[in-house]
Write a structure and sequence with these properties.
299 residues, Rossmann fold, Alpha-Beta Plaits, six-stranded mixed sheet, 13 strands
Length: 299
């Protein structure tokens, strides 16, 4: 797979705050890559550095296997701030100005207006747009010249449920056309529904990265209990796929590093002469797994 973006040991400090700490990750062609983390985790600083808006203290990054250049920037579309266009001009006129500034051909304007669902409102003034429509116009602007990658920083912030749904559908549509996407968000549900790969950040550190479905598989857990939970715990910790365990109200919540079925666990414990009084599978959300990662990082 072609590597679109490669980040190597990227760091940025603001006074006493380490905004990004030796961050390394790769984004390959065709991914919808989510950078997930709470406010202050380093998401926006990371995007600012790879877009040459913020100078890193150390580390490096490459676009399309090469050091950043004027040519590579032409292959990148980005929406990282609140949409800001001329309020008394139409959507089309605003896009014509963007195209002129970026030295793009006006012939692409019709396409991006259709892609973002704004074609029927192309002649209406920007000030008459809802916030969701303004956000879609910002995406339209970023899609001019058909970039290879689209970068979005918190694209659904401040939107109502309908606006969120529109942006989500738009991102998935753009991804289906082969454009690689990097999406920074603090919203777990957003990442879970849109992205196929995720990197979890907290306080500038990367806590986890992997395919979203792998994160979800790891975060499933099995509830267990027996007359002798101490012996049960020891046996479970000896299982080759054991990952972690939490005890709550006499129930052991066990997470395995791979897909382990309850029946297989029952057979495993039976062979160790341990009888269970409780056995059930619990599906945990990405949010629960995310919060546990953050908790572990605080300790």
């Amino acid at each position: 797979m072609e590597t679109i973006l490669s980040i190597n040991q990227l760091s940025k400090r603001y006074g006493r705050i380490q905004a990004v700490n030796k961050l390394s990750l790769e984004v390959v062609k065709g991914q919808v890559f989510g950078i997930l983390g709470p406010n202050g985790s380093g998401k926006s600083t990371t995007l600012g550095m790879i877009l040459d808006l913020i100078r890193p203290d150390s580390g490096s990054f490459t676009w399309f296997g090469e050091h950043p250049s004027k040519e590579s920037r032409k292959r990148i579309g980005a929406v990282i701030e609140t949409p800001n266009f001329f309020p008394y001009l139409s959507a089309r006129k605003n896009l014509e100005i963007v195209a002129k500034v970026k030295d793009y051909d006006n012939s692409d304007i019709e396409r991006v207006l259709r892609t973002t669902g704004l074609y029927d409102r192309k002649n209406d003034k920007f000030k008459t747009y809802s916030f969701g429509m303004k956000q879609r116009l910002a995406v339209a602007s970023a899609l001019l010249n058909n970039p290879d990658i689209l970068i979005l920083d918190e694209p659904t912030n401040g939107l109502d449920p309908q606006g969120i749904a529109h942006i989500r559908e738009l991102i998935l549509q753009v991804a289906s056309e082969g454009i690689t996407i990097i999406l920074a968000s603090h919203l777990l549900d957003e990442v879970q529904k849109i992205c196929n790969y995720v990197a979890v950040l907290n306080k500038g550190n990367i806590l986890f990265s992997g395919e979203v479905h792998d994160v979800l598989a790891i975060s499933d857990c099995i509830e267990l209990a027996s007359a002798d939970n101490a012996a049960l715990k020891a046996a479970i910790e000896a299982h080759p796929a054991f990952h972690s365990i939490i005890e709550s109200d006499g129930i052991l919540l066990v997470v395995f590093s791979e897909d382990v079925r309850p029946g297989a666990i029952s057979e495993y414990l039976h062979q160790k002469n341990i009888s269970l009084s409780h056995l059930t599978e619990r599906k945990r959300t990405l949010e629960q797994h995310f919060l546990e990662l953050l908790k572990d990082n605080e300790s």
